[in-house]
UniProtKB/TrEMBL annotation:
Protein name: Class I SAM-dependent methyltransferase
Positions of the Methyltransferase domain: 51-151
Record keywords: Methyltransferase, Transferase
Signal peptide as annotated in the record: none
Molecular functions (GO terms): methyltransferase activity
Annotated InterPro entries: Methyltransf_25, SAM-dependent_MTases_sf
CDD domains, per database record: AdoMet_MTases (cd02440)
Keyword check for Transmembrane helix: no
Enzyme class, broadest EC rank: transferase
A Pfam short name: Methyltransf_25
Swiss-Prot/TrEMBL GO biological process terms: methylation
EC number: 2.1.1.-
Gene3D superfamilies found in the cross-reference section: Vaccinia Virus protein VP39
């Protein structure tokens, strides 16, 4: 399957899942998409720098990033047109349309120069998107290619659940599967390999007994 066809298929699936959910997404997800605000607090983009979120959804994170770090340009891509519609409305209501630019794109293969007029970004964020994208390793590789010198890729997602009670973990995974979400239990190992291949450093942490995982990959200057 071509990347274009794959992207169109992913867009249709995401639109179907979120056509109605997007209206309650932010209100409901705050209870279980843990670690997002910790990621934002640790992002620290340089003065005058730029931030890209891959899989930006409703724009919730980008709005928080823009408010937390004035003077930084923010960009977001998502494969779902309906989520981007919600994001544009949210960004407009927040009065941040001049700071946040959004575009529809396949996370595994996109051209930031064509979309935003930029070849690279000082910070790239992927928040609870890898668990929804089957070729998720390709998303990580694409993000690393788009980092500017000295840039950082910040990832937060569901963790390996190693220390969670088994009954809780079983119920959680059955519930997540209803939304086509699959925790990437091997994410830490894959990121080690990706970091070595891309000549970046990696810092990874497990949060909340393995419920979530937080990782930062830094490109050398």
């Amino acid at each position: 399957m071509s990347s274009l066809a794959a992207g169109q298929g992913a867009a249709g699936l995401m639109d179907a899942i979120y056509r109605r959910q997007r209206h309650i997404y932010d209100a409901s997800r705050k209870f279980y998409l843990l670690g997002r605000d910790r990621l934002i607090d640790e992002l620290a983009p340089p003065e005058g720098g730029c931030v890209l979120e891959i899989g930006c959804g409703t724009g919730r994170n980008l709005i928080r990033i823009a408010r937390r770090y004035p003077g930084r340009a923010c960009f977001g891509v998502d494969v779902s047109s309906v989520m981007l519609e919600t994001a544009r409305r949210s960004v407009g209501r927040a009065g941040l349309s001049d700071r946040i630019a959004l575009a529809q794109a396949d996370a595994t293969d996109f051209d930031p120069q064509a979309l935003f007029g930029r070849a690279g970004f000082d910070r790239i964020v992927i928040s609870y998107a890898l668990s929804m994208i089957p070729p998720w390793q390709g998303v990580v590789e694409e993000a690393l290619r788009r980092l500017a010198p000295g840039g950082e890729l910040h990832i937060v997602d569901f963790g390996d659940q190693r220390e969670l009670p088994r009954p809780f973990s079983a119920v959680l995974n059955r519930w997540l599967a209803l939304f086509h979400v699959t925790p990437r239990r091997d994410m830490a190992a894959v990121l080690v390999t990706s970091a070595a291949g891309a000549d970046v450093t990696l810092q990874a942490r497990s949060l909340y007994r393995g419920y979530a995982a937080l990782a930062v990959l830094r490109r050398q200057r």
